[in-house]
Specification:
By secondary structure, the chain is mostly beta strands. The protein has a single domain, classed as YVTN repeat-like/Quinoprotein amine dehydrogenase (Methylamine Dehydrogenase, Chain H, 7 Propeller), CATH 2.130.10. The chain contains two helices and 29 strands. The protein starts with a strand and ends in a 20-residue tail after the last strand.
């Protein structure tokens, strides 16, 4: 794993380009900073400054050099690189509240944007008029949309909102794509059709994520619960209530392994196997690394004030991150059954790149996960393994 510091300001969101040589981050304001990797360090090469309010979402198209951003100014821009300069194109959103999240579709021909207007905007490019238009999904949404994720088929869209509901909608746009075929989640898919809806009494739905095959949908809510719906079993739901602080995001590393993180400042791994076996595999090693870049005096006193202590050593958490975090799966990682690579940024202004090796030994009845640096997770049986071979 690698730990980097981008200053003392919180990082509200981040996104990677296709080959991971550049990263776009927003330091909790109206700007986006684009950094270039150079000899294990990051050099700022661009600033995107078109927004007038705090940026809430960034997504870099997985296979092209296009960035979409959204902000509390109720605007979204699609940025393209021309002659070494990032050019913004305004998206016609037609919303009256702040935008909260944005996500490119797998085929990059549209993107979804959530907002406080109780709607989801599905945005696509109209070649005739050379502009970005949007269609609105309004059905059943009664509060702010907090999280979005696309199904691998480029049509279905999962959304979590602060009305305690997790939903799957059809985002089929007949103007730009062929009519979709039936899926495990449903067969009739006109635009805006609800294919799945599940309420949570425990609180807001902070994060949603489809599995690589699209069969499973996972979501995390403010009551520290992780839930998974299985489309192949009539959309049956398996839930696990944890003892951790609320999660803010969830990712599938492969079809049966998940990672969730949030206010606990460190990642937690989970395993889902049929039938209905959802369990926690534990947290990461508590071993910390030095941040590449020293903390400022201001950050030192902020740490003291955060814990109301007099000594800085008492104010440091025994984790790499020192505040709540969110995750992004790196573009090259894909969904390999043995390897996973993802990144996290947080309120502490740090970036962590995680390399995780996943090994499953079903014949032993245990599941072990190792970081590439050799630090093992503690398995559910309470044992630690010092080597990667059973015996």
């Amino acid at each position: 794993m690698s730990l980097y510091s981008f200053g003392i300001e919180p990082i509200s969101c981040h996104a990677w380009n296709k080959d991971q040589t550049q990263i776009a981050v927003s330091p909790n304001n109206h700007m986006v900073h684009i950094y270039q990797r150079a000899e294990n360090r990051w050099k700022k090469i661009h600033e995107l400054t078109e927004h007038s309010g705090r940026i809430t979402g960034i997504d870099w198209a997985p296979n092209s050099n296009c960035i979409v951003t959204c902000a509390v100014d109720r605007n979204a821009y699609v940025w393209t690189l021309k002659d070494g300069v990032w050019k913004p194109t305004l998206v016609l959103l037609r919303i009256n509240r702040a935008a909260t999240c944005v996500k490119w579709s797998p085929h990059e021909n549209k993107f979804a944007l959530g907002s406080g207007s109780k709607i989801i905007s599905i945005c696509y490019f109209e070649k005739e008029n050379d502009w970005w238009l949007s269609k609105h999904i309004k059905k059943a949404i009664r509060s702010t949309v907090l999280s979005l994720d696309w199904h691998p088929n480029n049509v279905l869209l999962a959304a979590g909102s602060s009305d305690f509901q997790c939903r799957i909608f059809s985002a089929y746009i007949k103007e730009i794509e062929d009519k979709p075929g039936p899926t495990l989640w449903g067969s009739k898919m006109p635009f805006g059709e609800i294919l799945f809806e599940k309420g949570e009494r425990g609180g807001w739905i902070h994060g949603v994520c489809f599995s690589p095959s699209g069969q499973y949908l996972a979501w995390v809510s403010h009551n520290s619960t992780l839930s998974i719906a299985d489309a192949a079993k009539g959309k049956a739901i398996t839930q696990l209530t944890t003892k951790f602080l609320p999660f803010l995001s969830v990712l599938f590393l492969n079809e049966n392994q998940l990672v969730a993180a949030g206010h606990d400042s460190c990642p937690y791994l989970f395993s889902y196997t049929e039938p209905d076996n959802l369990q926690s595999l534990g947290e990461t090693s508590s071993q910390k690394q030095n941040v590449k870049g020293s903390l400022s005096a201001m950050q030192h006193f902020r740490n003291l004030d955060k814990r109301a202590t007099k000594e800085d050593k008492d104010s440091k958490l025994d984790t790499l991150h020192q505040n709540s975090i969110r995750w992004k799966l790196l573009p090259e990682a894909g969904c390999d059954l043995k390897m996973a690579k993802f990144s996290s940024t947080g309120v502490d202004g740090a970036l962590v790149i995680w390399d995780v090796q996943v090994k499953v030994w079903r014949e032993l009845g245990v599941i072990c996960i190792f970081f590439l640096n050799g630090d093992p997770y503690k398995t559910r049986t309470g044992h630690n393994f010092d080597k990667q071979e059973p015996g």
